[in-house]
Write a structure and sequence with these properties.
Blueprint lengths: L5 E8 L9 E7 L3 E8 L7 H17 L7 H23 L9 E7 L2 E7 L3 E6 L2 E4 L28 E6 L5 E5 L1 H4 L4 H7 L4 H10 L9 E8 L4 H7 L13 E2 L2 E6 L6 E6 L2 E7 L8 H16 L8 E2 L8 E5 L4 E2 H7 L4 H19 L3 E2 L8 E6 L2 E6 L6 E2 L25 H17 L31 H10 L11 H9 L14 H4 L1 H22 L1
Antiparallel strand pairs: 1-10, 2-3, 3-4, 4-5, 5-8, 6-7, 6-9, 9-10, 11-12, 12-13, 13-14, 14-16, 15-16, 17-19, 18-21, 19-20
């Protein structure tokens, strides 16, 4: 479930006048899954709060990095068992009794499927079409007056049997995770009526019943499913993935003309006299779910992004193979275009505007391109005027979602080599490197090979060293974009675009680590030349 399709809220209040309580919660919306955990540290235990925090953080991190070959049920039960055993054994070692004890509620959303588990008496509810139902099952005594006595909790015994369930999700569903501090104070009707207002509203409503002096720690997490994830339907469609495709082959009326990429999965094709580009999923997607997910994501992005920066993309309704269609953009890849000679300054400025405007369009949808580079940019013509098109959809992802080295090493910001996520700043760096290369035919820090750990200690040479036609103001913009210190680099696309559009307001870029001579190399040469000329004249006059 993507961030565009889901909304979350969480809130917690400690009991009475205490500043902190024993509850702990966390919600993590990731690219492929959403995980929410609420733990209520058992108050009678000396380390209940610690157990609640550790359990929450362990489960979030473990599910984020779970083996893709494991089912979600196996993952949830395995990780719950692991952290339970750690809590129990540490309690025995440190206290010689059960003190790291907490309840647990956990939900995982993957695609349109809800997975849940609980240990103890914290609860999970689902609100759908006016109905409000408890999905979890309390581990507590049934006898009257003993309802608060737990029959199971995390860390209470060496082994634990969580209550586990699964459900399909629907658009407009609301899921509530809460500690007993909430449902002991609010009726099911009150929770159902307030769930759409979010977690803070529910907890504060409970607090007001006691004049903001709650008798127990109270926590709520609310997850709203705004709409179902369209990527799941794309993935589940039964489509053919051939091992290879051949010239002249006809797929759903599209005749394959010639391959455009070496792996023979992207072809120029023709239908009814019109040329298109057809892109097939890799053959490995049959067995490898990760590869399939990447292609489904690419198809979804291509269909979704309707703007002049990209070729138009469609998914034929009656396709029999796993592919999508793009309009054919006749032109030259920028990498090939600049191999003969650098871009002119005017085209370099237009390229900067194109990349920044495209990136702004994406960030408004919480997206980043992730692989800005000359190979992915086509130089084409519109009404005899040179324009640019971005032709790669495969790397587009949600901002802040990737913490890998996804992308092309020479264009990755230094912080990306240290597992930093993709942000506006890392994209600005890639734009800066692209401009530097387009205008100089060189990389600011040299070409970086895959799996290399590059050093960014040395400052890049100023681009005017290779192309003296670059105006000082444009050089300053490029150098700020590729600044290794994120405090000095542009923070936003709009900031960089403003300076591109207002050259007179660009402040000169000076690297503090450079000497005066390095910062003012041309001026030093000119002063030296004039000085030598004057000395030569003096020498002629007097000698």
């Amino acid at each position: 479930m993507s961030k565009q399709n889901i909304e979350t809220s969480g809130f917690s209040l400690a009991k009475g006048t205490q500043l902190t309580g024993d509850d702990f919660f966390e919600v993590k919306v990731m690219e492929n899954i959403t995980v929410a955990v609420v733990c209520d540290g058992v108050g009678s235990a000396a380390a209940g709060a610690e157990a609640a925090k550790r359990t929450t953080q362990f489960l979030i991190q473990s599910l984020k990095n779970r083996p893709r070959s494991w089912s979600m049920e196996k993952s949830i039960k395995h990780f719950i068992e692991n952290i339970n055993r750690v809590l129990y054994l540490e309690s025995m070692e440190q206290y010689e009794r059960e003190e790291l004890v907490t309840t647990l509620t956990l939900v995982v959303i993957e695609g349109n499927r809800l997975y849940g588990a609980n240990v103890g008496d914290s609860r999970i509810y689902l609100h759908r079409n006016g109905q409000f139902a408890q999905l979890s099952s309390d581990h507590a005594m049934d006898e009257e007056g003993m309802e608060n006595v737990l029959t199971a909790a995390m860390g209470l015994e060496e082994h634990v049997e969580p209550y586990y369930f699964e459900n399909n999700l629907q658009a407009k569903d609301h899921i509530l995770l809460c500690s007993d501090g909430l449902y002991n104070e609010l009726t099911q009707e009150e929770m159902a009526d307030g769930i759409q207002m979010g977690a803070s509203y529910l907890v504060k409503k409970a607090s007001k019943k006691h004049d903001d002096n709650l008798p127990d720690d109270t926590t709520a997490v609310v997850i709203e499913i705004k709409e179902l994830d369209p990527r799941l339907q794309l993935k589940q469609t039964d489509l053919i993935i051939q091992e290879s495709y051949k010239k002249g082959e006809v797929i759903d009326g599209y005749t394959l003309v010639k391959p455009l990429v070496q792996n023979n999965r992207t072809w120029l094709c023709e239908k009814k006299g019109v040329q298109y580009v057809i892109k097939f999923a890799l053959y490995e997607a049959i067995e490898d779910e990760v590869i399939l997910d990447f292609f489904v994501k690419e198809v979804w992005m291509a269909k979704r992004l309707k703007a002049g920066f990209f070729p138009k993309a469609v998914i034929p309704k009656k396709r029999t193979h796993r592919y999508y269609i793009m309009s054919y953009v006749e032109g030259t890849p920028l990498k090939e275009f600049i191999a003969k000679k650098p871009l002119s300054i005017d085209l370099g400025i237009e390229l900067a505007r194109f990349l920044l405007n495209m990136s702004q369009f994406l960030i408004k949808q919480n997206l980043v391109h992730g692989d800005v580079k000359p190979e992915n940019i086509i130089v084409t013509k519109r009404k005899e005027r040179i324009v640019f098109k971005m032709v790669d959809f495969g790397s587009i992802t949600e901002a802040y979602s990737e913490v890998t080295r996804a992308g092309t090493p020479s264009y990755l910001a230094p912080e990306r080599f240290n597992q930093a996520p993709i942000t506006e700043q890392t994209e600005i760096y890639a734009i800066g490197v692209t401009l530097y290369e387009a205008l100089t035919q060189k990389f600011p820090f040299g070409e970086i090979e895959p799996f290399q750990n590059p050093s960014f200690d040395k400052n890049p040479k100023h681009p005017t060293r290779f192309n003296p036609k670059i105006p000082d103001w444009f050089e300053s913009v490029i150098l700020r974009a590729i600044e290794t210190d994120t405090n000095k680099r542009y923070h936003n696309y709009s900031e960089m675009l403003f300076e591109i559009d207002n050259p007179s307001k660009v402040q000169p870029y000076f690297d503090k680590n450079l000497s005066f001579i390095e910062r003012n190399e041309m001026m030093v040469y000119k002063v030296g030349f004039v000085t030598m000329f004057i000395l030569n004249i003096i020498q002629l006059l007097f000698f």
